[in-house]
Design brief:
GO terms for molecular function: RNA binding. Helix content is 12%, strand content 28%. By secondary structure, it is α+β, with helices and mostly antiparallel strands.
Length: 244
C-alpha cells in the first residue's frame, strides 16, 4: 500500500471450504478448521479461527488419552487443527469480547485434530500399534487395556458415590481444586480432601492442566465433589439407595 495508508489484512485458509458453507459464514458442525492459539487458560485453549471467528477447546478435548498435564508444551501462537463439535456442546462455549458466541472445538487426534509441536496422546494407532496392543492384551485384563483412555463425556455410572473420576486442574482457590472432567462437567476437590496429609501450597502442587483422580463423595445439585484421601466418608442413606 502507499506510504501512510492503513494496512489491510486478508484471511486465508489452505483447507477446502465445507460443502454448502459460504466463505465468512459460521463454520458448520463437523467442519475441520485451522486456527491459532491466542490463550491457554483454565477453560482450555482460546483459538482464533478464519473469518474472525473464535473457539475454545476444553482441557479434556486436547488428547484421546489421559496425560500428566493436558497443556504441557502448548503455547500462545501455536497453530492447531480443530473440529467443530455438535450443537449439544455449543451451549458450554463462552461469548467473545465482540458479543459473538465462541465455537466449541475438539483438538483430539481421533477427531482429526492436531497441535503444532505437541505429541498428542492418541487412542488410535496404525496397524503396528494395533498388533502391539493385541499382543499385550493377553498379558493383562481386558478392563485395563484402555485404562488410560479419556472418555469425551462422563458416563452416568461415574456420577455416583464411590466412583473414581479423573480430570484436569482448571483452577485453584482457597476452597480447593476445580477440575474439568469433560467439556460439559466440572468437579471440585475441597482443600481438606486433597490429601491424607497437609498440602502447604496447592497452587504449586497442582499446576494448571495437571491430571487428578479422586473419588466421588457428593453429587448434590448435579455438582461433583471429589476426595483424594485414601479413606472417604461413609455413604448416606440416599447415596446407598442410588448405588442399588
Amino acid at each position: 500500500p502507499p506510504a501512510g495508508a492503513p494496512a489491510r489484512h486478508l484471511d486465508l485458509s489452505l483447507l477446502p471450504p465445507a460443502r454448502g458453507t459460504p466463505p465468512g459464514s459460521t463454520p458448520r458442525v463437523g467442519s475441520t478448521l485451522a486456527g491459532r492459539v491466542v490463550a491457554v487458560t483454565g477453560g482450555g485453549l482460546r483459538v482464533a479461527l478464519p473469518g474472525r471467528h473464535t473457539g475454545t477447546v476444553a482441557l479434556t478435548d486436547l488428547h484421546d488419552r489421559w496425560v500428566p498435564n493436558a497443556v504441557a508444551g502448548i503455547a500462545k501462537g501455536a497453530y492447531v487443527r480443530v473440529k467443530v463439535l455438535p450443537a449439544a456442546d455449543q451451549a458450554a462455549a463462552p461469548t467473545g469480547p465482540d458479543g459473538r458466541k465462541a465455537l466449541q472445538l475438539s483438538a483430539r487426534p481421533s477427531h482429526g485434530g492436531a497441535i503444532a509441536g505437541v505429541a498428542q496422546a492418541s487412542a488410535a494407532g496404525g496397524k503396528q500399534g494395533k498388533r502391539k496392543r493385541s499382543n499385550a492384551a493377553a498379558a493383562k485384563p481386558a478392563d485395563d487395556e484402555d485404562a488410560d483412555a479419556a472418555p469425551e463425556l462422563l458416563s452416568a455410572s461415574a456420577r455416583v458415590y464411590g466412583a473414581s473420576v479423573t480430570g484436569y486442574v482448571k483452577a485453584v482457590s482457597s476452597s480447593g481444586l476445580f477440575l474439568s472432567v469433560d467439556r460439559r462437567t466440572d468437579a471440585r476437590v475441597r482443600i481438606s480432601c486433597l490429601s491424607d496429609g497437609y498440602v502447604e501450597d496447592p497452587t504449586a502442587t497442582f499446576p494448571l492442566g495437571t491430571k487428578v483422580t479422586g473419588t466421588v463423595v457428593s453429587t448434590k445439585n448435579g455438582r461433583l465433589e471429589l476426595s483424594m484421601r485414601t479413606v472417604i466418608p461413609k455413604a448416606s442413606s440416599k447415596q446407598r439407595l442410588a448405588l442399588k
